[in-house]
Request: fold
Amino acid sequence: MGVLLALAAGMFFGLSNITVRRAQLQGRVDQFTGLFVGVAVNNGLNLALLAGLVLSGVAFPPLNLPAAIYYSASGLLTSFLGRELLFKSIRKIGPSRAAALKISAPLFTVILGVLALKERIAAPAFFGIAMILAASYYISLELLRIHKTAGEEANPAGSGSPRDGSHRRGLVRAVLAGMALGAGNIFRKLGVTHYASPLIGVSISSFAALLFMLALLARQGRVNEALRDLPAQLRGGYFWTGVLTSLALYATFAALLYAPVSIVNSIKAAEPLFTIAGSYVLLRTLEAITPLFVGLTLLVITGVAVVAYFS
Reply:
């Protein structure tokens, strides 16, 4: 059961990357508003699930302040910052490559765990880290080569692709998304040690992200407009992104009830494969899926599996 749930989590996360790109292509709302829609959907589903459990007689222990702080910090780093950087990366380099670089998050979780929590890295994990770094480096070279070739074909005079800088920013943002998600996992781990309820943790982190986004909208004088227009925007790609990421989080935490975290993280790392498959079917004219890229993605997944298993 744990393996199937972890695989479902990877599938939901992978497909959510496709819905982000489709929403960006639809262009109905700006990216920040799209992110707000997704986070609002997360909170709505969390509230419905919590209400159903409470009405069915499930009682939750009192929440303590340290857990609330840690879960809130994880929400700002994952549901807001990590997802914002991921959305920007997807716009620049496409969902498949953004997903392949974003799943380096366990690498940053391990590094931050060593620095902040004084955890130890097992010797085999260094091999996995080297695989992730090498594959990520060659993915960036492969992407820049594709766009440089496209630029030279469009401009035989030889000035190169004018979008090289844009794609480099996309690569950097994908890696930064992995860093934000990795740091968020550290705070999530700290939260679980103080309050071991995954559903409450997901709900608090999503709510903290929503409050932060409302504060940013209020600063821009857009909060009333955003809330007024929200019902009309609950459709299209960003709505389904919110649904799919919520399902992915529920599947992840449910999988942890049946399988060790190392196994769950290793299987969930298959996320880019679902993104690649979805891109090939739905975005085949917009994103170049090369055999080299598929091989490098498998190398990243293998590295993540090694790091997760031996951490």
About this structure: Residues 2-310 form one domain. The CA atoms of residues 147 and 161 lie 6 Å apart.
